[in-house]
Amino acid sequence: MSSLPLESLEYQQARERIAAAYDTQLLQSAGRKVIDLLAEHLEKCQASSKSVLNWNEPAENITVAARMLHEAEACEAEEIESRIQLLVETIMARGHNLHDPRYIGHQVPASVPLAGLFETITSVTNSVMAVYEMGPWATACETALVREIGRLIGYPEGSFSGLITSGGSLANLTALLTARNVTLGESWKEGLSSRNPRPVMIAHGAAHYCIERSAGILGLGTENCLKAPLDDRGRIDVEKLEQLIRDVQSQGHPILAVCASACATPIGAFDPLHPIADLCEKYNLWLHVDAAHGGATCFSDKYRHLISGLERADSLICDAHKMMFVPALCAFVFYKNREHQYQAFQQSAPYLFDPSAPDLVEYDSGLKTIECTKPAVAFGLWGIWATFGKTLFADLVDLTFSLGKVLYDKLKAAEDFQTLHEPECNIVAFRYRPEAIRNAPAEKIGELQLRLRRRLIESGKFYIVPTQFEGVAALRCTVMNPLTTPTQFDELMQTIREQAQNLIGSEGFESSMQ
Amino acid sequence: MSSLPLESLEYQQARERIAAAYDTQLLQSAGRKVIDLLAEHLEKCQASSKSVLNWNEPAENITVAARMLHEAEACEAEEIESRIQLLVETIMARGHNLHDPRYIGHQVPASVPLAGLFETITSVTNSVMAVYEMGPWATACETALVREIGRLIGYPEGSFSGLITSGGSLANLTALLTARNVTLGESWKEGLSSRNPRPVMIAHGAAHYCIERSAGILGLGTENCLKAPLDDRGRIDVEKLEQLIRDVQSQGHPILAVCASACATPIGAFDPLHPIADLCEKYNLWLHVDAAHGGATCFSDKYRHLISGLERADSLICDAHKMMFVPALCAFVFYKNREHQYQAFQQSAPYLFDPSAPDLVEYDSGLKTIECTKPAVAFGLWGIWATFGKTLFADLVDLTFSLGKVLYDKLKAAEDFQTLHEPECNIVAFRYRPEAIRNAPAEKIGELQLRLRRRLIESGKFYIVPTQFEGVAALRCTVMNPLTTPTQFDELMQTIREQAQNLIGSEGFESSMQ
């Protein structure tokens, strides 16, 4: 098949259509409209004058999304701007409003809106990195942030390294891959086949699921991700951890890493890092800490004690898209030993890495991350930091952690709510358990929590999430919107009571509670 | 340490500082300014009135980026908007301008600007997904796109599945992880230890580096990623592939997958997919195709013949942030067998996946991707598709592939340039080899290409990339800006000649050419 001849009408028409799509005046006018719509939308969300979650069934949403793709073929040039407005309004009308203070759900923040604005530059200009020359300024921003945060974590100047990658799961995988390559000799090149006895890793018993997944991905096998026993506050029990290490070592299994959590997901428990680091030193083990949520306490004078010892970790991860309140995804990996940044991947790619400029290799992000092309996600964090200073991040931690305590106090004071733990941060798990069902079987109480929550979120009035506590379903809030106020906690509790009354009173439920 | 009491002055001040950062009027006024600056910037880039690449040494850039973080602490409230403007201008002044038509470099596009605008909604509202309820509309857009593109690839309706993930490397890893789990039985749970003989995979001899990396990550070992021999056009030699398969199988090694490329990175060679699929059927092997670059030819009547047979792949990947011209990262994975979408990861996470709504599990993206929280990256592609229709993507492929041919014809017609292959798409590799150095040793000619290129890109006049061809360095262009014109190819060649003259004439170079 021959290519389009330049002089053909077909070629000229294609060029014209493309020029229209790349028109910068359209970008400007549509862009201003998008900004206006966004500002209006966020204002309404902040004032809770919309639903938190706009609930529609998947099939209905998918039908609409597909129809809008098909309709486009009939869109005339003069309709483009109104078409864009319709699409933008549809996105807003059918999404989830994390900026509503009644969003008290997953560990995904109501992000600082201006961070998204800086990322607009990333998206519109398609700013990326991989080799230094592809994104010199993206590389500079990322490097400056790595150095600042590494210092706040407490690594000695010049001794550590770090990188940004696409999310906490990928960050944990990258760090554990490094741990595997360093601790298991030639595993990168030779693989894990015919390793005997089989290598294992040890992780916090309620670690995020991505830790066990990493064992599955890296060829260890999920059953070789051993669970470290927890104490009654949900933290790694150090004595039992030592026993486990001894047992495993006595059977000859190499231990790839010990993975602690700061904090663990279910109830936000922070592991005792100094005693765990002592153990890892004693037994010569790689210490990895998943500080996706809690790492940002390094900004806070009030709460940095929670991660005391983090600077002793051989590797750690910290999600800026959690407690630094930037949009997803922006996850940091840090290595205590600077050289470990090159141990995850050990390869050459001639068309990328230029032998005529060997000094630049240190700044080639693709050598350190699974991503080859990687967007300049650092712009969001760098932008708000360079605007508001790092005080902003201390404020965000201090305020939301304080609000976690406020929510807990209210739940504890209410007779019909059951608190499950004293919160260490902004994560609070609990159950609604009024007098009428207090003697119901545990699984029935669990079932009520799940059905309650589903009604609650589909109503659009609040957004909270489910969890399990001691094997039974429970409710869980994370205060990820710093504009949430204590009044909204009162309203949440009142709304739960009302929903429960409807539910418990509904046919079939009461009898099932026997 | 106690939390901040709500009535404390400290708490009130933190609240006020945060409210200022979340102010929607600031978002609107700063947002309009950012849009205006972006539109002006892109207009200048399109007109080539700036440098393509703004070259500064890493140390200098990092110093500036760090200083701007520190300066923020002194920024007063009334200076916020001018501060933001300064930061935005700095980002633009020190970055790489992919929208300049003289950017003819990596396979990273001058993206459709409006796609970035739709992604602004993703960033500012922090729209994410993981479970359906976290991003119902994001899930709907992604699902609609998967269905449309799967159909265009040629998978039968309802039989296939797909997902979006953070980049081509991660997409290839995800698909190969699925292949490993399906073909190697219990490898997810049990790992690869004590597998003997060791499993291998077979990949295109010049596959993207992420394929061999995948073998390293997944526990196979990079030395167990065998290279399929290529023919003289850089494509997998099917006869030699069959011989390799037989040899490997006769030694008892399980073959995880055969990985073909559509196209391979160095010169854009498309593998013959039908004959390779025939072989895979004959020997009962998993066929994976890395169609990161070429998958989008499914939109084009002119070029879809290049990927004929792609619909026979058990898994394939296609980067929308390449030939669909959306910002990075937006990579698709497709599975021919719908059920394989659940084979990459096989786990439960109780706080995420709600047993009270089992019907929704099919729409929980976190079950299929390494990312737990994943941004709504589909908004960019969905937005421009729903605005301009899929004709836009056909135009972009047709135009840039045609331009590849135009560049090739010009290089071939010039006596001082050496073409290395007849291009199948918009990737063109070549060398500058004037009469004066024609008899120089090959490595000296290679060295000239690299030094030439470095001068060229640091001058800001053009951006092209290095590659290797038959072991010797060469130059490589990918036409990733549809606004590039044939005139710019003439200018590129002229600029290379001028740079080379300076370089060859410079002290020390000529003698080294002997």
Describe the structure.
Two copies of one chain form a homodimer. With 514 residues, the first copy, chain A, is α/β, with parallel strands linked by helices. Chain A has two domains: 121-389, 3-Layer(aba) Sandwich (Aspartate Aminotransferase, domain 2), CATH 3.40.640; 392-512, Aspartate Aminotransferase, domain 1, CATH 3.90.1150.170. The first copy, chain A, contains 17 helices and 13 strands. Chain A has helices at residues 9-21, 24-46, 58-71, 80-93, 113-125, 136-153, 168-183, 187-190, 209-217, 238-250, 273-282, 320-323, 378-388, 391-413, 442-459, 486-505, 509-512; strands spanning 128-129, 161-165, 200-204, 225-228, 255-261, 287-290, 315-319, 331-335, 374-375, 417-419, 427-432, 465-469, 472-478. In chain A, the strands form three sheets. Chain A has a seven-stranded mixed beta sheet, with helices on both faces. The longest helix of chain A is centred in the first third of the chain and has 23 residues, at 24-46. Chain A is globular. Chains A and B meet through helix 1, helix 2, helix 3, helix 4 and helix 5 of A and helix 1, helix 2, helix 3, helix 4 and helix 5 of B.
Features:
514 residues, 4-stranded antiparallel beta sheet, homodimer, 13 strands, alpha/beta, 7-stranded mixed beta sheet
Morphology of chain A: globular
N-end to C-end Cα span of chain A = 73 Å
Can you identify the CATH class of the largest domain in chain A? Alpha Beta
The figure for the number of domains of chain A is 2
Strand order of the largest sheet of chain A: 2-8-7-6-5-3-4
Strand proportion of chain A: 5-15%
Order of helices and strands of chain A: HHHHHEHEHHEHEHEHEEHEEHHEEHEEHH
Can you tell me the residue ranges of chain A where pLDDT is under 50 for at least 5 consecutive residues? none
According to DSSP, the number of beta strands of chain A is 13
CATH superfamily annotation of the largest domain in chain A: Type I PLP-dependent aspartate aminotransferase-like (Major domain)
Structural class computed from helices and strand pairing of chain A: alpha/beta
Radius of gyration of chain A: 26 Å
Largest interface, and how many residues on either side? A-B, 204 and 204 residues
Number of helices of chain A: 17
